[in-house]
Design goal:
By secondary structure, the chain is mainly alpha-helical. The protein has a domain of 243 residues. Helix content is 75%, strand content 0%. It contains 22 helices and no strands. It is globular and about 70 Å long.
Length: 469
């Protein structure tokens, strides 16, 4: 009662918060060199102010949108917290040290980067989770890479490329199920159609990582340092191949469709049990590791820097960043600011090539503004579905484009939930790893080329599209 009639959201109202956000992030990153949490949160309340005083929304309506959007991210937040616990107990138990130990013995610098890409792709396809892949084999491969003298950012690029390639093609992945649902096609039609852009991107990435890995062959192999790392690991942990059963069981549980949250929590519990059995840890120390992470003194700084990590607390920085991003995304989604921005972009899509182009650019834009890959798939999916129908394009073209951009570019943006997660899990500095995420960068480009050449762009009768949607 007594509420004012809402004004229609126009482009100027949508652009004002966006420009404020861009200015805030530029100041935070380039000038003040501070974390982006507060600038994003301030931008969120600035957007709320524009909506209340400019568009006549009530705070209750805005809060409802924020809560609904945060609900979308709660699953990811819970997984993130549990993975912090997994990392801690898998280090304390010797699982990660064992992976690093045998990795250093088997892998050589010349084949390491292509092997990392392939290993992460296989694990991610099997589990349907780029996050789980990065938090398990990814962490171990970071350690092996550093032992071989390969920079962390380069190794991270191979890990992220492989993890997201597998996630994108896995029928167990949430985004792989979400994209066809938004576009109006079925899961396996969607996955099959993605092969045309993903496989060439994967092959090019293997070649590029092969050339890059050749740089570290021979001269880069510091056998003295590797021997020090091996001796330190062997002296501080009971290295045992039986410990590898822990990740095998967890990956097997995911393949058997055990839900991610209980499956990962089970992995943390198994890590704690293994720490008691193989490393002689007390129950109290396991609980401490679950909360605060592993803390040990091996006598070698490189090993300590690698292994002193994990725990529930270690993920709170990332969790708070996700919540800040979700608050901003929820406000802009509820007040139709994201919608109007997407519609303006769509207005230039007069040809099939232009439509594919804006479908690739819009999820990237939403990933940067809203900070969440789910919104980057849902919002453009809702907005562009009608345009694909009007042009007689099969909805699988839309679902593929949503993943080519929405899924693959999400880890490249530091304040995005996926980017923040990869930075926290793999111990990276923002932006530094991005040039080495070859597959994530190449795939959207291939998708755009296909759009303009018409290669693999399948058309269908408009009546058929309506019937299948």
């Amino acid at each position: 009662m007594g509420s004012k009639m809402k004004k229609k959201t126009t482009l100027i109202y949508a652009l004002i918060p966006l420009l404020f956000l861009i200015g805030s992030l530029f100041y935070a990153i380039q000038i003040a060199h501070i974390d982006v949490h507060i600038p994003i949160l301030v931008s969120a309340f600035f957007a709320a102010g524009v909506a209340i005083f400019g568009l006549n929304y009530t705070w209750g309506e805005i809060e409802e949108g924020v809560i609904e959007t945060i609900k979308m991210a709660l699953g990811a937040i819970i997984i993130l917290m549990i993975i912090g616990m997994v990392v801690g107990t898998w280090i304390q138990s010797g699982v990660v040290p064992t992976m690093i130990f045998y990795g250093l013995k088997i892998l050589s610098p010349g084949i390491f980067l292509p092997a990392t890409l392939i290993i992460c792709a296989i694990v991610s396809v099997a589990t349907g989770s780029s996050w789980t892949t990065a938090a398990t084999v990814g962490i171990a491969l970071i350690g092996v890479g550093e032992g071989l003298g390969i920079p962390r950012n380069v190794v991270a690029g191979a890990i992220i490329s492989g993890a997201y390639m597998g996630d994108k093609l896995s029928p167990l992945s949430d985004t792989t199920n979400l994209a066809p649902a938004m576009a109006g096609t079925d899961l396996f039609t969607h996955i099959k159609h993605m092969m045309y852009t993903t496989i060439p991107s994967f092959i090019i990435s293997i070649i590029l990582f092969g050339f890059l890995g050749a740089k570290y062959t021979g001269a880069a192999l510091n056998t003295e340092m590797i021997d020090k790392i091996l001796n330190s690991l062997n002296g501080n942990f009971n290295i045992n191949l039986l410990l590898l059963l822990v990740p095998v069981i967890v990956i097997g549980a995911v393949i058997m469709k055990v839900p991610a949250i209980p499956g990962l929590f089970g992995g943390a519990v198994l890590g704690g049990i293994a720490a008691i059995i193989f490393q002689g840890a007390s129950l109290g120390s396991v609980f401490s590791t679950l909360h605060y992470g592993y803390a040990g003194e091996s006598g070698l700084a490189m090993v300590d820097n690698l292994l002193n990590r994990g725990g529930l607390d270690s993920m709170m920085w990332t969790v708070s960043l996700i919540i800040c991003a979700m608050i901003l995304g929820g406000i802009m989604e509820k007040t139709q600011m994201l919608e109007i921005l997407a519609m303006k972009i769509l207005s230039v899509a007069h040809t099939t090539g232009n439509l594919i182009l804006v479908t690739i650019l819009t999820p990237i834009f939403v990933n940067a503004v809203a900070g969440d890959q789910y919104l980057a798939i849902v919002v453009p999916g809702r907005m562009f579905k009608g345009a694909y129908e009007q042009k007689g394009l099969h909805p699988k073209n839309l679902s593929r484009s949503l993943e080519d951009a929405g899924t693959l570019t999400s880890p490249l943006i530091p304040w995005n939930t996926c980017g923040a997660y990869m930075i926290a899990t793999l111990g990276l500095a923002p932006w530094t790893y991005v040039p080495y995420c070859f597959l994530n960068l190449i795939n959207p480009i291939i998708a755009i080329i296909y759009g303009y050449t018409g290669f693999t762009i399948e058309k269908i009768d408009k009546e058929k599209v309506k019937a299948e949607a």
